[in-house]
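Amino acid ABC transporter permease: structure, please.
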Amino acid sequence: MKMYLNNSFINSEFTELYNLAESSLIPLLEGALYYTIPLTIISFMIGLTLAVLSAVARISTIKFLQTLSRIYVSIIRGTPLLVQLFIIFYGLPNIGITLDPFPSAIIGFSLNVGAYGSEIIRASILSIPKGQWEAGYSIGMSYTRILQRIILPQAARVSVPPLSNTFISLVKDTSLASLVLVTELFRKAQQIAAKEYNFLLLYIEAAIIYWVICFILSLFQNKIEHRLERFIS
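Here you go.
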């Protein structure tokens, strides 16, 4: 009789957990689809643009641009991403600049990607043999044209693997946006967990969704790297 009651209790608990996991799956996926993934893509594209501009400024002969790029990279890489998000969302209103949660998160993540991506792209550019520059100058090409037509295309192939890793890491970093009130995947998990009083299940479920997204992206990354192998010596 006692064993029957225990089995009945276990089955009841399992059923309750299963129902909670099933009912919370759609809201969590919506958080990923409407906020986590768009936040990742938009931030990465803006950040990649900043990274290219910063890397080019860093290798330029114009001292002002070099200094500006160094300061930007140093500040962003030298401070925690969470602190940067808090400054943008909670700090800027003190000087009259108020931003909504989603734009605040985009600015924070874009600046972060730009700084780290800048070092990746700069290293990729510097890895191109100097003979490529000399060959361009020998046929009368300008600095800008050599950079656009010869150097950056080759550097792009070299920088794809580390930039892909940055993109995948950004997917996970977007969970920090929950702290500036963006209702992305992890924020949804927090809201449901606070209502249902089952934090372990909801957080594990959110972690699994993050893992699935990153796993799929890793498969794409492997395919891209495999195709680029023949172009990289």
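Notes: The two ends are 72 Å apart (CA to CA).
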